[in-house]
Amino acid sequence: MIETKNKECKGHSRCQRIPVSDGLCAFHLPSDHKNSLSCDKYNDLLIEEIKEAKENRDDIFELHWEGFNFPKDHVLFDFLKFEAVSEKLSKSWINIRESNIQNILIAARDIHTLILSDSIVHGDTTIGVADIRRISTGKTIFHGKFHCASRTHEFDARGAIFEDEFSFTATIYKRAIFTNCRFLKSCIFSGVSGQVFENNADNEFRIVGFDYSIFGKPNETLFQDVDLRKASFNSVALVDVRFNNTNFYQEELNRNGLYNEVKELQKNNKPSSNQAKNNNTIKRFHHLIYEYRQIRMAMESNKEYTKAHDFYIGEMESRQRQNWSFVIGLYRFSSHFGTNYTRAFCILICMFIIHFFLSIILSPDISILKLCCDSNMANNWLQLSDIAIHSISTGTLQRVGLLENTSNWQSLIDLIFRVLIPIQAAMFVLALRNKTKR
Ligand SMILES: [Zn+2]
């Protein structure tokens, strides 16, 4: 091919290749064009491009394949065909954005950076075990199946649409972003021995974002053996999504919970006074409550009650922080939102004890002084046991064992405890029932 300066391909603004037909180079000819190349010839040209690629300042080979129209039934990076350039590919930065791609098959083939943004992939995409430092598939539409099992530092699929089955078993070292994605069919995130989204170095920043994503088939969506401690599911409908053996444990909260709550608590520790900031906080807690409720319901339908309870606590705690309420505060105090039966039981016992001591103080027959100094212990014990029986019958709403000379104060105290003790007893039963449900 002889280069003529004035004639450049019109296929893409970046393309300076020589046109072969209709002002388009071989790479930019539509796949249904009469002069379009066969898959083998197209691959030969691609391999030639890789061979001729020049190193940039970072010793990376830059390849600009923007806007390419790959021929029908073409398979990109087919193992055997690209064998000759495999060494160079592992140090290549390849930009294939805004292209019409047919199929992608990367297996045992390392690539430095792969950019597929704003493209259409008409067939299947399979990224097998391979080291690819960065993969970007933002806003790409995948008509076919998508499977990724690579070892990758950063996977960015912002706004991508996966129209067919999606499965992700990749090991992500730094972050995976699925913000605004749409998964229209079954969707599986599965870790190989819990390694998905797991970080090698603990101090490194790691995050998995699913904000505003849509799972079109929630009952065919599964998170299996996945570390989701730094995941965000802001405004994502998750009821019926299955979470199997996932890790949501937050050390800062001492329970399972959401990373967004941990971040919120860290933010709240910093002083903020102005009104706008407060309004934003309320809005963020509103999102947090929704996020908690969605995962709680998903966990409940999975029968993972221990986790569901922790998410319920997160939901109530967030509600309380968004808008403080006395009733929720009381619910939290009495039984930790119906999740702590030991606490509920202790408070119940305390109520009896408090009623007992108040009754001693109010009793006309007994004075504290008399209790301490009187030599007739037997008589005192008799009176004390009378009061104890009175406390128990008050708490259990029985008529027997009522004291004879009751003052108005005593009647008032009795009335209050006749309401409080049964409520607390109900709290205890509720917490116990929740515990046995686990
Ligand atoms: Zn061109």
Helix-and-strand structural type:
alpha/beta
Query: Bound compounds, please?
Result: zinc ion
Rg:
34 Å
Number of helices: 10
Uncertain stretches of 5 or more adjacent residues: 1-6, 198-205
Integer count of domains: 2
Give, in spatial order, the strands making up the sheet with the most strands: 1-3-6-9-12-15-18-21
Largest sheet: 8 strands, parallel
According to DSSP, the number of beta strands is 24
Mean pLDDT: 86
Distance between the termini: 73 Å
What is the beta-strand fraction? 15-25%
Helix content: 25-40%
Give the helix/strand layout.
Blueprint: H1 39-52, E1 61-64, E2 75-76, H2 86-89, E3 92-95, E4 100-101, E5 103-106, E6 111-115, E7 120-121, E8 125-127, E9 132-136, E10 141-142, E11 146-148, E12 151-156, E13 161-162, E14 166-168, E15 171-177, E16 182-183, E17 187-190, E18 207-209, E19 214-215, E20 221-224, E21 231-232, E22 242-244, E23 249-250, E24 255-256, H3 259-269, H4 275-301, H5 305-322, H6 326-335, H7 341-362, H8 368-373, H9 377-395, H10 408-437
Parallel strand pairs: 1-3, 2-5, 3-6, 4-7, 5-8, 6-9, 7-10, 8-11, 9-12, 10-13, 11-14, 12-15, 13-16, 14-17, 15-18, 16-19, 17-20, 18-21, 20-22
Antiparallel strand pairs: 23-24
Helix pairs in contact: 4-5, 7-9, 7-10
The structure holds zinc ion.
Zinc ion (ZN) is lined by residues 9, 11-12, 15, 17, 24-25, 27-28.
Explain the overall architecture:
The protein folds into two domains: 39-273; 341-437, no CATH class. It has an eight-stranded parallel sheet, with no helix packed on it. β23 and β24 (255-256) form a beta hairpin. It has ten helices and 24 strands. Helix content is 37%, strand content 18%. It starts with 38 loop residues before the first helix and ends with a helix. With 438 residues, it is an alpha/beta fold. The radius of gyration is 34 Å and the shape is rod-shaped. It binds zinc ion.
